[in-house]
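$ ./design --mode recover --in tokens.txt
reading tokens...
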């Protein structure tokens, strides 16, 4: 599991790389430094669960950040002429139709379905809409960097909701990521970098 999460967390690197290749976006050194620090933080968060082997699974997991990077680049390119926010709804409906036969018969209780529905609308839906809207204003690499908040805050929500406390190493890794994101954002607001 940790291998998959670490590989999926490479998304800021792929988003920045594809933004540079396909859009010609140059990131300031502060953002590259934040990406490097965040990747170290991800490594710390999941270091205790890393193992070798499972090459096929690792390669499949690597497909996630590559696909995410291409998605952000397409969003950035398309926002020049059309709002992509409605595409989030269409994608959600398509996913519902495609996955419903695989989920049948439904085994969760009604209360669980309500929780899943709220998570789908709020956690996933709002995040996708915000990412889509941000694509108009932020460089691809910065969007990828902000996407790490999901990886970082996931264990925090489990801790708060279920009492499953992350290890000290995982907390340190999460802190590194949050500091990198905060420093990148604050430095960007000061406007003192050059691309």
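writing sequence...
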């Amino acid at each position: 599991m940790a291998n998959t999460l670490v590989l999926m967390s490479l998304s800021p690197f792929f988003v920045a790389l594809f933004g540079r290749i396909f859009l010609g976006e140059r990131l300031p050194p502060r953002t590259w430094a934040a990406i490097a620090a965040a990747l170290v933080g991800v490594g710390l968060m999941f270091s205790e669960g890393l193992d070798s082997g499972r090459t096929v699974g690792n390669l499949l997991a690597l497909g996630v950040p590559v696909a995410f990077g291409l998605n952000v680049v397409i969003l950035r390119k398309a926002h020049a002429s059309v709002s992509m926010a409605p595409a989030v709804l269409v994608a959600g409906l398509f996913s519902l139709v495609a996955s419903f036969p695989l989920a049948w018969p439904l085994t969760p209780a009604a209360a669980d379905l309500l929780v899943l529905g709220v998570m789908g609308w709020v956690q996933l839906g709002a995040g996708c809409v915000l990412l889509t809207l941000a694509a108009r204003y932020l460089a691809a690499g910065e969007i990828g960097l902000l996407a790490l908040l999901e990886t970082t805050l996931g264990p925090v929500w489990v801790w708060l909701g279920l009492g499953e406390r992350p290890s000290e190493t995982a907390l340190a890794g999460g802190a590194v990521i949050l500091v990198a994101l905060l420093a990148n954002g604050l430095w960007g607001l000061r406007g003192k970098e050059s691309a």
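exit 0
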